[in-house]
Amino acid sequence: MEEPDTIQAIIDEMVFECGLNNTIMTFYEIAHGDNSEDQEFYNIHPTVLQKTMDVLVKRGVAVTFQGANFEEMGVKFINAGAV
Questions:
Q1: Cys-Cys crosslink for 67: which of 5, 49, 73, 83, Cβ 3.0 to 4.6 Å?
Q2: Model confidence over 18-46: pLDDT tens digits?
Q3: Which residues of 43-74 are buried (b: 16+ CB within 10 A; e: fewer)?
């Protein structure tokens, strides 16, 4: 599996291509959802996904939300594909 910096670019592209900007998704949907099935990050380890989301937040592409557990944590993509 690639590093978070590489994975964030793949997730960013998937979000843009699927029209998911301004959409809130759970971390579970990102790691295991229909839009992710054919992606390199499918079934990504939770720690790597968290680090990847941190990179996207720092870039201003996403905002994360706390959930009851890791899989229920959410992310809203706000500027995917802008770079």
A1: 73
A2: 999 999 999 999 999 999 999 999 999 99
A3: ebeeebbeebbebbeeeebbeeeeeeeeeebb
